[in-house]
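Known limitations

Files may contain more than one protein. Parsers should not assume a single record per file. Below, a two-record file is shown to illustrate correct handling: read the sequence, read the token line, then continue until end of file.
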Amino acid sequence: MPDMPQDHATAAGSTAVDPPDPAIVAAGYRELTSGVGLLDRSEAGKLALTGHEARSFLTGQVTADVEGLEPGDGTYAALLTPKGKIVADLRIAHVGDEDHVELLLLCERSGLQALFDHLRRHLVGYDVELHKRTLQLGLLSLAGPRTAAALGAAADGLGTDEHATAAGTIDGTTVRLVRTAAGVDVLPAAADTETVRAALIARGAVPVDASAAEVARVEAGRPRLHHEMDESVMPAEAGIVERAVSFTKGCYVGQETVARLHWRGRPNRHLRGLELERPVPVGTVIVQDGRELGRVTTSVDSPALGPIALALVRREVEPLETVTLRPTEGGPTSARVVALPFSRAAHGSTA
């Protein structure tokens, strides 16, 4: 479940203070994998760009091709440094119509200020306006196989592609819907968030703890800003090139480095999964033959798979290899490196 943040996890290089309650994680995980879980993510960053040059302007700033987005379309993208490192990642949804271009930008709260500052600095000379939407809109994430049943007719106009968007009505309240990899994000006006939340619960959605959503994100192998992605990581290292980068559009910030690596080189690191012998904290060093190969960026205890983690590891480490981990406490332990996403089938689980 890639688009839900987790309150208990901390940025790479630090450890969680209070581990999540396993019973709470398991209850939420069941909803996310067999029902429909509901998580209030209203704190997420939200911006909007309006004006007839909004698409061409944003295309020149981020990795994705925004120019071709039509009303109802969406895409995933990253904002990079001039050296091709990740400043922020964002989802972009064209929420306007044929006569009015409006791009809704959804991002991690931790990346909001950097994204806002960058866009504001580069707006000069474009017929584009930048708007703050974080406090104006709520955001309720639905995820799980019963998401469509909970939304009912509200999602009739919503396309099937990830990031597709449409306006809808839930029990008389107008909302904006944005499809995610695991379900649908529902964005009401901030003042209507609690009303819409109650309506979704009445339709069968079950509130879940953010810790359960984090487990699902790790299983899916989706990197998160300031965990697996920051200004030391390139898109190819984080494994987001296929989802976020266009190699056919014009120039954007950081393009030269990203294109050179794609066509002529190989990333030094890859985002991998770790099947852990026992839970370890974020920041745990990964070694092999005495050499440091990387560090754990997110660590969770999955109800289906047991202790697992995400890590950026050196490219020479292949899936199915066993590596040693050296946490700050408890002595060395081992882990098996796996390609992402994790496979529940490999563990005999259908949860």
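...continuing to the second record:
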Amino acid sequence: MLKKLGFRQSLPPATVIKLGKFVWTTMWQTMMAQMAPRNAAGEYLRPASQFRQMISSQPGAIYPPAAGRYRLFVGWGCPWAHRTLVVRALKGLEAAIAIAIVEPSPDTGMWVLTQPELGCQTLPDLYQKAKPGYSGRCTVPVLWDDHTATIVNNESADIIVNLNAELNAFARHPDLDLYPADLKIDIDRWNERIYATVNNGVYRCGFAQSQAAYEQACQALFTTLDAIETTLAQHRYLCGDRLTLADVRLFTTLIRFDLVYYGLFKCNQQRLQDYPHLSGYLRELYQLPGIADTCQLDIIKRDYYGNLFPLNPGGIIPIGPDINALLTIPHGRDGFPIA
């Protein structure tokens, strides 16, 4: 081929390497710009959710509490959607709120329904059904209202607050309050820090497009994990002796940490299992009734390694780590009081 182009001999290895790096870097930056918007410093910027209505028991509310009216569209691999499944299980809302499962398509880069729902094959179909002409991101979770055939909310932080408070009439565990008034300040404080440096922080590591952006995000991540470890050495949960939404929001990142974030997202300063209190805390939450069923570990690993092409171009899914056995051993946190 090179002779046909007028070359008498093959290109020098250095030239091939430079050309290959240029082509791949250009393609990588193009793909990352589509998948992970960034600022001038190469820091990942997560776009805001667009649907922010709430279920409310107030008179005249557009979306009143009801059993069988709402459903959740979720992906097993998504940590944001996972939050809603955890609260649904803790509150005992499985009979009141159905779920529809989506999975990422490696070829199209969109969420696809495992079974058609509401005449839709993909998540973009659902968004178009709710709002014709919609051109924003199509993400999970989605809280859908069958009565008005629209999306109520696609922000996980809102949805879990709603599930905690507004559907108690249909919950098996209505007395469980994951967002009690006397702890809201502490819960909000933890949520703000954990979102910025842990929940979204792992993505800021994995999706960083400059060395400086990566190092800054990684340092912030492990500074917060160290602070949480110190807190959990003294308290059973983040806000004392009661399980709260702060714990739920942290849990869905922790369960993925050693499995995918440590390797794929380069969050490898320390494994979660190397933190004695954090790892015990993770096991305790995993062992709560109904929570293990929301943690599809094989699917989580497959979705991350198999679908984030810019981070794993070969699509090879690693055999390890196998964290199943680690999650089922005694958590050792019974010595802490619990409310």
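Parsers that stop after the first record will miss the second one. For reference, the second record is described as follows. Strands lie at 70-74, 98-104, 111-117, 120-122, 142-145, 150-153.
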